[in-house]
Amino acid sequence: RVSSDGKPPKFQPPPKPIIIDRKTQKEERRFLSPEFIPPRGRTDPLKYYIERKDMIQRRKVFSIPEFYVGSVLAVTTADPYASDKSKRFVGICIQRGGKGLGATFVLRNVIEDQGVEICYELYSPRIQAIEVLKLEKRLDENLMYLRDALPEYSTFDVNMKPVPRMEHEEIPVNKLQVRMKPKPWSKRWERPKYNIKGIKFELPEHKMKAAQKWSQPWLEFDMLREYDTSKIEAKIRKELSEELEK
Amino acid sequence: MMPIWTKSGEKHPVTLLKVQDCHVLRYVSKEESGGKTAKLLVGGKNVSPFSKPESAHEIFKEAGVPRKQKVTTFNVTDDAIIKPGTPLYAAHFRPGQFVDVTAKTIGKGFQGVMKRWGFKGQPASHGQTKTHRRPGAISTNQAAKVYRGKKMPGKMGNIYRTSFGLKVWRINTKHDIIYVNGSVPGHTNCLVKVRDSKLPTYKDCNKNPPFPTFFADGDEELPEDLFDEEIFQFTDPSVTFA
Q1: Are residues B25 and B98 in the same domain?
Q2: Which domains does chain A have, with CATH numbers?
Q3: Contact at 8 Å (CB) between A154 and A115?
Q4: B167: closest CA among B93, B91, B99?
Q5: Which pTM was predicted?
C-alpha cells in the first residue's frame, strides 16, 4: 500500500483467523425425530423418560435414518407367510404420526394402477431395514391429498436406486404443486384448515373465495394453543447425544 | 400406555403403574375383623399431613409413616403377615404373573340413558316429536310398578371397578414400575389397587413369587429391569422368521 508520508506503512496485524466450529454447527442442525417430543398433557414426565430409554435402546441396535414427510423410503419387514420370509415396500412418506414407541409412518405407492398405503411402526421389531432412497421435504407436513391427486404423483419405481446426497447439505424442499383429479375429493383440501400449499388448485375463483368462509384467523393468535418446544427439545437432544455416544 | 412387542412380532398395549411410597400400616387379625382371613391395611402415595385432623393421623403414627392419600385392605393368609411399617415395592410382583387392578372409573357426571346404559334411543327423523334419546317404556302394564334397579339416567362413573386377569409383562425395580397388559380403569395418575388375580385359571401361575413380599434390605439383588420370557427386548436384533 502506498502511504501518505513516504515512510514504510504502519504495521497492520494479520486478520484474526475465523474459526468455524463444525461440531457446534453440526449439533444445531442435527435432526430430532418428532416422536421424541412429548405431547402436552398431564402425564408424569417419568413415563416419557422411560419410553425414551427404550427408544434409544432400539436405535442403538437398529439405525432409524433421518427422513421427512415427502421422502421416498424402502422398508423391509419380516413376514412369516412370504417365500423369502421378508417383504420390501417402496413408497413416499405421506404422514408421520404418534409419539414415543408407537410412532408410525405411512408410505404410499401406486403398484399396477392400484394405490397402496402401508402404515409402519418405527420401533416394531419386525422391521429389518429402512433405507432412504430420496431425502427431501415438501411444502406440507401431511401429504394425504396425494390420494386425490393424479396417480403419476404417487408412483415410484420399486427398483429405484438411492439418490446420492452429500452430508451437511441442506435438505432440499421440493416445491412441486400437484394437479388433482376432478372433484369430489376425500377431503375438501381447498379449505383453509388444511393449509395446503402443495396443490395447484384449478378451481374457479368463486369456489376458492367460498372456501375462505371457513377460515379461522383468530386461531393464530390463540395463546393457549402455543406449545413452545425449544427448551424441551434442547434437553432431549442433549440426552440423546449423551446416550448414543455410550 | 405404551406398546410392547413379543418375540413373534405381535404388539400388545401395556399400562404403566408406579408403586409410590407404599407401606403396610396395620395388621388386623381374623377374629378382630370378623372375616375369614386376616387383613393388612396398606397405604399409598404420600400426602401433606396438614389437611386432616390429628385424630386421623393415629394409624400413620403407629406405623411410623407419613400420611398416605389412600388406605386399602388386603385379605391375607396367616403365613403372609408383614410387620406394619415395611415398605412395599414393585418387585413384589414378577413378570408372567396375573393381576387384578381396581380403581375409581373416570367420572362422567349426570348422563342420559343412551350413554350410561347403551340404550338405542329413537330415530332422528320420520315424525319423532321431541324424542330422540329417551328411554321409552319403563315397565309393563301387568307389573303396575317400576322395578327396583330400573336402568335410568343418573351419575355415571367415579365408582370402583376391577379389570381381572391382566398379565404382568415387565417390572422396573429402579423406578418401581409395573407393566400390566391392556387397559386399567381410572384416569392418568389416579390411585390404583393391584392384587394377585383371583380368577380360577390363574390360581397356579405364580411359580416362585417373593413371599411374603420383596424386602429391599434383603440379600437378593435384582437387575434394573425384569422381563417376561416372551417379550422382545430392544437389545436383541430385529425379529426374523426362519
Answers
A1: no
A2: 34-174 (2.30.30.790)
A3: yes
A4: B99
A5: 0.86
Express each pLDDT in B191-214 by its tens digit. Answer: 999 999 989 998 887 777 787 888
Q: What is the CATH number of the domain that holds B206?
A: 2.40.30.10
Output phi, psi for B231, to 5 deg.
-70, 140
A-chain residues within 8 Å CB-CB of B171?
none
Alpha-carbon span B105 to B111, nearest angstrom: 14
- Look up the CATH number of the domain holding residue B54: 3.30.160.810
Please indicate, yes or no, if residue B208 is contained in any of the structural domains: yes
Residue B171: closest CA among B187, B197, B198, B194: B194
Min Cα distance B150 → chain A (Å) is 37
Would you give the DSSP letter of residue A117?
E
Domain that holds residue B96: 1-19+90-107+154-230
What backbone torsions phi and psi does residue B120 show, to the nearest 5 degrees? Answer: -85, -20
Confidence of residue A29 (pLDDT cuts 50, 70, 90): low
A79 touching B, CB under 8 A? yes
In-domain check, residue B123:
no
B177 interfaces chain A, CB cutoff of 8 Å:
yes
Decide: B1 and B16 in contact? Cβ < 8 Å: yes
Tell me what ipTM this predicted complex has: 0.89
Residues of A in Cβ contact (< 8 Å) with B2: 47, 51, 100-102
Q: Is A188 on the interface with B (CB under 8 A)?
A: no
Which residues in chain B are contacts of A128 at CB distance < 8 A? 238, 240
On whether both B182 and B98 belong to a single domain, the answer is yes
The band of A175, judged by pLDDT with boundaries at 50, 70 and 90, is very high
Is the pLDDT at A24 greater than 70? The verdict is no
Give yes or no: residues B217 and B170 share one domain. Answer: yes
Structural domain count, chain B: 2
Alpha-carbon separation of residue A162 from A120, A170, B20 (angstroms): 20, 17, 51
Does residue B63 fall inside a structural domain? yes
Sign of CA dihedral B200, B206, B207, B212: negative
Name the grid cell of B123: 330415530
- Considering the domain architecture, whether residues B200 and B223 belong to the same structural domain is answered as yes
Cα separation, A164 vs B192, in Å, equals 54
